[in-house]
Design brief:
Strand order of the largest sheet: 9-8-10-7-12-13-14-15
Radius of gyration: 28 Å
Helix content: 10-25%
CATH class of the largest domain: Alpha Beta
CATH architecture of the largest domain: 3-Layer(aba) Sandwich
Distance between the termini: 54 Å
Number of strands: 29
Strand content: 15-25%
């Protein structure tokens, strides 16, 4: 234990003695879970992750503010007795060095005072790929209509390059032909360096190239395979510098938080260790920023107990028959399922290599890719809203309804995206040439989200320095009027008069809470806009802009 012996453990309890009289049923937890190593899956390394009681724990455990503060001060005093590995401000977690073999005893002592929400090992964990390639599967069966129904989903959306899925994994073969579009700057979470700072993201194991292919391999390029979100942005967050791909829980969570801080909407972790409580803390942190964390259920054939209504999306594997392979973990802790047996994807052996892989490692990024498509359909969705669509779109396999094997069911791309109202803006109706010699055009900036309420209308190529106004209606038309075409029909509402500038442009923010005529818009509604302007001795119009509103 470095400079500390187990005899020192008694000292750690002294600051907490006055507060440790509550039982586990009426106060903070006083015992950690038992630490059981699984060689090659979850191994101890002599480092613990500790989270002191948080402000929200006061109500949970019936503590006064003074008692909570006393617990937190006692926790800090206890942690100060051990060498600091790292403090994580984002989650208030502290990593301490206790020496291999001492993890359970130290955690027992720290937890005994009731000062911590949890004290858990910073496990060494490994990529979850436990089955050999199966050469009998030469195509991506998981995308077919009987399984993920991907082609029908791609009719709705193939991914927005500005929506980024982060793969927290062993690295990426960046020269592979399937990752030449939409790749974002990578990050080495072990060295804590971005690519531009010298962070190495090359694949040290091969696992990361295969998971990346599941989520976001470039599609429709007459080459190889298609990821679920084949036009999504994708980012490698390398979590290992070891040839066996091993990482730690803290490194994995650091990678996910860093991706979330960068604005990525989904972070995928295809490693063992899903049940560690620290993952939930990171999941909550990411979710608060609009990012969902997906974690593979694991390949030990174990039942995972707990609540799926938490801050992680935990994914079980299915096979071609829509049953669970014997090796896939399952249970009430798991949210849903995705293909994970003989999944055909990219491999790292060359720039044009592919193969069949098995494991929940590959179920998870297929799910992450679908989440990227959900956010592509409507970037204004919250993490909770995106998760609700993901759950609602699943195919119910196994027992009827929500069950402990497949949770909400197996993911279905087409069925899920069909649930999300399409939104955005598109131009229609041809404007007539005006006195500037050009046809005026409508545009917008901001979003078409009702909740964001940040739409700004624009009109360009109009007559310069002329009076004009924006107006809208509930239908489209193509009616000659003045020197141009009235593209908006139905009940018309007009905004206030303004003037085009010296470039023939006009702009106006739209306040959806104060629309003219008492008009109201809701998600899914369609509104048609145009711009009227003076044009010499008559008037003219821009083309029509049709907006479908999002949540």
């Amino acid at each position: 234990m470095n400079r500390h012996s187990l005899c020192a453990l008694g000292v750690l309890l002294l600051p907490s003695l006055a507060l440790a009289q509550r039982t586990p049923t009426d106060g903070p937890p006083t015992r950690p879970y038992r630490f059981v190593e699984i060689p090659g899956e979850m191994e101890l390394r002599g480092v613990l992750t500790a989270l002191p009681l948080q402000p929200e724990d006061a109500a949970r455990y019936g503590l006064t503010e003074q008692e909570l503060q006393a617990h937190r001060e006692a926790a800090q005093q206890a942690l100060a007795e051990y060498p600091l590995v790292e403090y994580i401000p984002a989650t208030d977690e502290t990593l301490i060095e206790v020496g291999v073999g001492n993890e359970q005893a130290v955690a027992d002592a720290l937890m005994a005072g009731g000062d911590f929400r949890y004290v858990t090992p910073d496990w060494i964990v490994y990529p979850l790929a436990n089955c050999p390639n199966d050469t009998n599967f030469g195509s991506q069966w998981h995308h077919d209509a009987a399984h993920m129904n991907s082609c029908n989903g791609w009719d709705f959306n193939t991914g927005d390059p500005n929506i980024v899925v982060a793969l927290c994994d062993t690295g990426l073969r960046t020269t592979h032909s399937e990752f030449q579009l939409n790749r974002k700057e990578g990050y080495n979470a072990v060295d804590k360096k971005w690519e531009s700072q010298g962070g190495n993201i090359n694949d040290v194991h091969g696992h990361g190239t295969s998971t990346s292919g599941c989520a976001a391999a470039n599609g429709n390029n007459a080459n190889g395979v298609s990821g679920v979100g084949w036009n999504l942005g994708h980012r490698m967050m390398r979590v290992s510098n070891q040839s066996n791909g091993s990482s730690t829980i803290s490194t994995l969570n650091h990678a996910a938080r860093t991706a979330s801080d960068a604005g990525d909407r989904v972070a995928n972790i295809s490693y063992s260790g899903v049940t560690d409580p620290s993952n939930q803390t990171t999941g909550a942190y990411c979710r608060a920023q609009g990012t969902l964390v997906v974690w593979a259920a694991g390949n030990s054939g174990q039942k995972l107990t707990g609540s799926r209504d938490d801050d992680l999306i935990v994914v079980v594997a299915t096979n071609f028959n829509d049953t669970k392979p014997s090796w896939s973990n399952w249970g009430g802790f798991c949210d849903l399922a995705a293909p994970g047996e003989s999944v055909y994807t990219t491999t790292a052996s060359s720039n044009n290599s592919y193969g069949s892989v098995s494991g929940t490692s590959f179920s998870a990024p297929l799910t992450a890719g679908l989440i990227g498509l959900i956010f592509s359909m409507d970037p204004s969705l919250t993490a909770a809203e995106a998760e609700n669509y993901l759950r609602a779109g699943c195919d119910d396999i196994g027992s009827t309804g929500l069950d402990t094997t497949f949770g909400y069911g197996r993911i279905d791309v087409g069925q899920t995206l069909a649930l999300i109202p399409s939104c955005g803006g598109s131009n229609y109706c041809t404007a007539q040439t005006n006195s500037s010699g050009l046809a005026a055009q409508m545009s917008f900036t901001g979003s078409t989200s009702v909740s964001q309420n940040d739409l700004v209308l624009g009109a360009d190529l109009c007559a310069t320095n002329q009076f004009g106004l924006f107006f809208f209606g509930d239908s489209q038309a193509n009616t000659a009027s003045g020197a141009g075409t009235l593209c908006v029909g139905g009940t018309l509402h007009r905004f206030g008069v303004l003037q085009t500038d010296a470039f023939g442009s006009a702009f106006m923010p739209v306040d959806l809470n104060a629309l003219p005529g008492g008009a109201v818009v809701n998600p899914g509604d369609v509104t048609n806009f145009s711009f009227w302007f003076r044009d010499g001795s008559t008037w003219n119009f821009a083309d029509g802009l049709s907006v479908t509103w999002c949540n």
